[in-house]
Amino acid sequence: xxxxxxxxxxxxxxxxxxxxxxxxxxxxxxxxxxxxxxxxxxxxxxxxxxxxxxxxxxxxxxxxxxxxxxxxxxxxxxxxxxxxxxxx
Length: 88
Ligand code: SF4
Description:
Elements: E1 11-15, H1 41-53, E2 58-62, H2 72-81, E3 85-87
Parallel strand pairs: 1-2, 2-3
Helix pairs in contact: 1-2
């Protein structure tokens, strides 16, 4: 009998951007003080699809300041339509 074990994450935290209007000294990601390297919408959705394929139950979108990402809501909707809980 072949038993296959597949490890999948139950929760994912995606730092979707390092862009932030603030520069808090306690920021663990040094957001606002490093290049933002923002992905465009097609690449963001490709990453979203790769995360969906891992079938996590929850995805937390963090950063940086996720609300400065123009396509944030399209990404969140992609997760939500896939039955994955999304938090910011
Ligand atoms: S991401 Fe949060 S902690 Fe980091 S600089 Fe921005 S507001 Fe401050």
